[in-house]
């Protein structure tokens, strides 16, 4: 800045030079003038950091490809795992539910561990980006093996199911924790983060659209009447696409925010910081119930259409219309957040998600139009919240740095993602156990009680989980105003050590 001011002062005084001289002088000093104007503009916006500038659309799209890749597996687990393991692989609902819970809890516990590792990774490609490349091929291979049904003894099949399911959940954690942490280091602008996560959610739900709309038709088509072969070939196709998308995400992203090079912290200190981070605690509980609701609702809908509606293929139409509505909700999310703030938007979204979830109970299962309409309204409401949750993860990392002076982006993110996987595991287990308690029998005519259990699980039990998430969100203390204050103050702090 002093150099720029000195150059600016060397410009000719008024009245002593021609217009041509002024133009020449401006051209000679254009870099300095640009820096001065950019600083002045940044001051007006409350920020002077390059990290506060808007990201290129190409980087947002490229980054979002990582979430699309992961969601070919995530959506398959969410929508297909219970039906695959009970109706095709041969596990009982109770066996499947127990596996989902135990493996889910183990994988969830690995999230904070992976966060500590990622925060302490030092590589020329960054702290978080390298993991996208390193895990891409293992992810694809394990994904195919998980949805393969081997012709072995029943006991060996149970062991195979547990082993491959565990490996898939572990590689997902190793890939997804660093990927999620990238949101907090590619920009420090709160609104840009919402925009980035909106791109993520659009891509993720495009993958969801493909999986939930086309997976069952592909299983039927590629399997030729053999569902085991159909699942293997379908997931093989999705896995190949995912490997390519992970590499693209690695190639186009850039890590811009770095912790203070003088920062000293330990694992115990990072954990202590988390426990004293009130917004993180609230977001942890929100995430747990949020994804428990998603898991319950996602796991039950294929059996709902197969047994309650008597039309399994309607599952694809249901998901197709629903996910199209979800994408519309995602696209409206950044504008709503900019106007109302993340917490308010999230609260309203959760309320209507729960409401439209519960309305399914009063709709006859054979009334396809009404069932699909209720899902369109539910997904439209739910879609608004999708980018908000992930942007909040970066915000609570900022809050921790603002309070303590120490930044642990991956640790904070991983600890919230831990709640995500606990919620998914809990939701999957609860669904399996509920099915057993209501007398569900795979590939059989269901009793009236079992049909009632399926409908209750799809409506009220899932809706209650979303209402619990809403209740926890009232304790999230980062308002729209505080969010902006934190962003501005951290930008000022970072100037001190980035200039060193």
Q: How would the blueprint of this fold be written?
A:
Elements: H1 2-9, H2 19-28, H3 30-45, H4 57-89, H5 93-119, H6 129-146, H7 154-182, H8 190-223, H9 227-252, H10 267-275, H11 278-308, H12 314-340, H13 342-358, H14 368-404, H15 409-437, H16 448-473, H17 480-498
Please describe what this structure looks like.
By secondary structure, the chain is mostly helical. The chain is 79% helix and 0% strand. It has 17 helices and no strands. It has helices at residues 2-9, 19-28, 30-45, 57-89, 93-119, 129-146, 154-182, 190-223, 227-252, 267-275, 278-308, 314-340, 342-358, 368-404, 409-437, 448-473, 480-498. Helix 7 packs antiparallel against helix 15 (409-437), helix 12 (314-340) runs parallel beside helix 14 (368-404) and helix 14 (368-404) crosses helix 17. The longest helix has 37 residues, at 368-404. The radius of gyration is 25 Å and the shape is globular. The model is unreliable at 1-51 (pLDDT under 50).
